[in-house]
């Protein structure tokens, strides 16, 4: 079985200061420490998986295509740095509009990744900036690290045992 780091997107990988939703390419600002931290995590043998709530789709603020465009651009920027995110999972629903099983704190998207990539939850971590991220990770037995929104991701490395 493999080990993985599950990462929230907005507030962890991307700087969301001053905006609740990130859905335009021009709004992409990778947080301090992300590139170096992700490289270190890969070198420690972790797969990287993004798990993100994207309720703006259900609220018709933006589209699935907007989210896919953000993820394509992130893939492009990370590839330049030699970083491979195995998958970007996102929930397009919002509890104000509809009920679902995939919006964090529900763990369905994490469970999908665990099965697809044969990941051992006991050797894996969830990094998030919100209680919902941490709750989702705990529900499947991940070790969880809560950071402040837009905190330097290098700060978490001492808390991760390879």
Descriptive labels:
single chain, 162 residues, alpha/beta, Rossmann fold, five-stranded parallel sheet, 5 strands, globular
Describe the structure.
This protein is an alpha/beta fold. The protein has one domain (3-159): HAD superfamily/HAD-like (Rossmann fold, 3-Layer(aba) Sandwich), CATH 3.40.50. It is 28% helix and 16% strand. The protein has 4 helices and 5 strands. It has helices at 34-43, 64-80, 108-116, 131-139; strands at residues 3-7, 46-53, 87-91, 125-128, 143-146. Strands 3-2-1-4-5 form a 5-stranded parallel beta sheet, sandwiched between helices. The protein is globular. 35% of the residues are buried.
Report the mean per-residue pLDDT as an integer.
96
Q: Uncertain regions: pLDDT < 50 for 5+ in a row? A: none
Please state the structural category: alpha/beta
Overall, the morphology is globular
Please work out how many helical segments DSSP would assign: 4
How would you concisely characterize the structure shown here?
With 162 residues, the chain is of the alpha/beta class.
Blueprint (SSEs and pairs):
Blueprint: E1 3-7, H1 34-43, E2 46-53, H2 64-80, E3 87-91, H3 108-116, E4 125-128, H4 131-139, E5 143-146
Parallel strand pairs: 1-2, 1-4, 2-3, 4-5
């Amino acid at each position: 079985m493999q080990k993985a780091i599950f990462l929230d997107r907005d507030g962890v990988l991307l700087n969301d200061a001053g905006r609740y939703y990130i859905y335009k390419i021009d709004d992409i600002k990778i947080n301090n420490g992300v590139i170096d931290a992700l490289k270190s995590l890969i070198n420690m043998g972790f797969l990287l998986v993004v798990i993100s709530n994207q309720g703006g789709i259900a609220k018709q603020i933006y589209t699935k295509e907007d989210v896919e465009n953000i993820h394509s651009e992130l893939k492009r920027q990370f590839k330049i740095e030699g970083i491979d995110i195995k998958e970007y999972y996102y929930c397009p629903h919002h509890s104000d509009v509809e009920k679902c099983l995939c919006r964090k704190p529900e763990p369905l998207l994490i469970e999908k990744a665990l099965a697809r990539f044969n990941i051992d939850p006991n050797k894996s971590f969830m990094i998030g900036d919100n209680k919902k991220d941490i709750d989702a990770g705990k529900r499947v037995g991940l070790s969880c690290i809560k950071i402040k929104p837009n905190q330097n991701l290098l700060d978490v490395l001492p808390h991760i045992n390879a």
